[in-house]
C-alpha cells in the first residue's frame, strides 16, 4: 500500500487486521483514499481510525475495529 506521513499509522493498523493480498489494485487505491480522507479531518489517531473503520465498513463491508 502507498503510505504517506498522514496515513501510514492507519494503513499499518489495517494491514494487521486484514489480508490485503485478497484486494485488487483498485480496491487498494480505494482503501488508501479512505485512509487519506479519514486522516484529513481527524483530531487524533483514534478519531482517524474510527472514521476509517466507518468508511471501510461502508464501502467494502469489512467490519474492523
Topology record:
Layout: H1 8-17, H2 25-40, H3 45-60
Characterization of this structure:
- With 65 residues, the chain is mainly α.
- It has one domain (1-16, 26-65).
- The chain has helices at 8-17, 25-40, 45-60.
- The radius of gyration is 11 Å and the shape is globular.
- The model has no long low-confidence stretch (mean pLDDT 93).
Short description:
Helices cover 65% and strands 0% of the residues. The protein has 65 residues and is mainly alpha-helical. The protein has one domain.
Mean pLDDT: 93
| Major sheet description | none
Based on helices, strands and strand pairing, what is the structural class? Answer: mainly alpha
Question: Stretches where pLDDT falls below 50 for ≥5 residues?
Answer: none
How many domain units? 1
The dominant shape is globular
**Percent of residues in β-strands:** under 5%
Radius of gyration: 11 Å
Order of helices and strands: HHH
- Percent in helix: 55-70%
Q: What is the end-to-end distance?
A: 20 Å
Given the structure, what is the number of helices? 3
Give the tally of β-strands. Answer: 0
Features:
mainly alpha, globular, 65 residues
Amino acid at each position: 500500500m502507498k503510505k504517506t506521513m498522514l496515513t501510514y499509522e492507519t494503513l499499518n493498523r489495517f494491514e494487521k487486521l486484514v489480508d490485503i493480498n485478497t484486494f485488487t489494485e483498485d480496491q487498494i487505491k480505494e482503501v488508501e483514499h479512505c485512509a487519506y480522507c479519514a486522516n484529513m479531518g481527524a483530531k487524533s489517531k483514534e478519531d482517524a481510525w474510527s472514521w476509517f473503520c466507518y468508511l471501510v465498513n461502508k464501502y467494502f463491508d469489512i467490519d474492523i475495529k
